[in-house]
Amino acid sequence: MSNFIPAAKPIIGDEERAAVDRVMQTGMLAQGDEVLNFEAEFSKLLVNSAEAIAVNSGTSALHLGLLAAGIGPGDEVIVPSFTFAATANSVALTGATPVFADIDPVSFCLNPEDVEARITPSTKAIMPVHLYGHPAAMEKFSEIAKAHDLLIFEDAAQAHGASLNGQPVGTFGEFGAFSLYPTKNMTSGEGGMVTTSNPELARRVKLLRNQGMEQQYNNEVVGFNNRMTNIHAAIGRVQLSKVDGWTEQRIKNADYLNEHIEGVSVPHTAPGARHVFHQYTIRVEQDRDGFANALREEHNIGCGVYYPIPNHQLPSLAHFADDLVHPETQKAAEQVISLPVHPSLTQAELERIVKAVNDVAKAGA
Prior knowledge:
By secondary structure, this protein is an alpha/beta fold. It folds into 2 domains: 221 residues, Aspartate Aminotransferase, domain 2; 122 residues, Alpha-Beta Complex (Aspartate Aminotransferase, domain 1), CATH 3.90.1150.10. 39% of the residues lie in helices and 13% in strands. The chain is built from 12 helices and 12 strands. It has a 7-stranded mixed beta sheet with strand order 1-9-8-5-4-2-3, sandwiched between helices. Strands 7-6-10 form a 3-stranded antiparallel beta sheet, with no helix packed on it. Strand 4, helix 6 and strand 5 form a beta-alpha-beta unit. Helix 2 runs parallel beside helix 8. The longest helix has 18 residues. The chain is globular and about 65 Å long.
């Protein structure tokens, strides 16, 4: 059988290892100049020079952003249910209530019409997720937020470099939150980034990530230890220098798959959107799990299901949802499969993926 093609493949090379060694030799391992430089470079390259604040995970980026924006007990934040649990977890961790809305069946992102229907006097914000690397409908959300005096927060964990009509994700709302986990489009080993054009919110995030202090022993608020280390920042800086090229390759890989895959629904990119394909997600209308198993076991091709259980059905979050029914979320949870699209794929591997998907689709027809 041919070699296994993994669903995701972090790219860590000699430059990343050299960067870590360089920091190790300085002895300055905790947050310092390396982090400052990473923040400045991330800001310039990915978010049109909005301020970027590095933290220790994407979940911390969401959590601290929400706290810095004043979200807390008694507030409601509208989120999708079809996403990783960190989105709703971060809201719940502030003491606020995540309110789950349904998704658009084409983009898999939050549905603006369903969001508007769920606004109550307690609603303080909308937090779309740029799922799989496709930007959410930010212009519509901006209109809704303005009409109802709401804030917008962006979960951009999977969307480094994505944009809508030329505007990068992470710059539409009060803040954006990026993840730098190993399987993301770029990594720092582990980490996250808060982006904002609000200087006061940026200052509060910096306080919250560092025990509530800007100056040592002058603790202004109760804070966390959510700092990024110089070691992680050094990895991130190298990755940042490569992410544009990797993204272009992801888009080319996705274009090839779109052109040649048959028998299943392939990803759509909305007009004006730059989809960065953190995941290349297809729909299989019948026996999704059997389809995925056939790809793995018969064709040696890795694939993932993101996400098989909607957040509002998870034991940890179901108490926020009562007997909520989201038809498009449920359908997506039962039908999606994410195929390899990472920039390490060779042309021969892309051809293998196409043949495998088409063969399995044909066999199941």
